[in-house]
Amino acid sequence: VSCDEELLALLWTWRRASLVLTRNRHTRAIREFLERHGAPPGIEVRHVKKGEAKGAALREGLRPGDTALLVDDSIAELVHPSVTGDC
């Protein structure tokens, strides 16, 4: 098992601003996996409950003028109103 090189590069470039959102409750195991495969130490990994939009969870921590990048394997997450601004 490996970790995507582009993801690792992104985490290193933006290590102070990176946040991993996941439906998986095993956030510590995910953080440890990422670190074992080359991610910077201390990346924040946050569980997002089923039914809660990841975009809404991401926007909670943003301040006016902040920019965010949401990467997900579900088109539903990427076009959710909390991401597109239609909320």
The Rg value, from CA coordinates, equals: 13 Å
Structural class: mainly alpha
Largest sheet: 2 strands, parallel
User: What ranges have pLDDT less than 50 throughout 5 or more consecutive residues?
Assistant: none
Strand content: 5-15%
Determine the fraction of residues in helical runs and give it as a percent range: 25-40%
- State the end-to-end distance: 38 Å
Question: Would you mind describing this structure in some detail?
Answer:
The chain has 87 residues and is mainly α. Helices cover 39% and strands 9% of the residues. It contains 5 helices and 2 strands, in the order αβαβααα. It has helices at 5-13, 27-36, 54-60, 75-78, 81-84; strands spanning 19-22, 44-47. The longest helix has 10 residues, at 27-36. The chain is globular and about 40 Å long. The N and C termini lie far apart (38 Å). The model has no long low-confidence stretch (mean pLDDT 89).
Question: Which labels suit this protein?
Answer:
87 residues, 5 helices
Topology of helices and strands:
Layout: H1 5-13, E1 19-22, H2 27-36, E2 44-47, H3 54-60, H4 75-78, H5 81-84
Parallel strand pairs: 1-2
In brief:
By secondary structure, the chain is mainly alpha-helical. The protein has helices at 5-13, 27-36, 54-60, 75-78, 81-84, and strands at residues 19-22, 44-47.
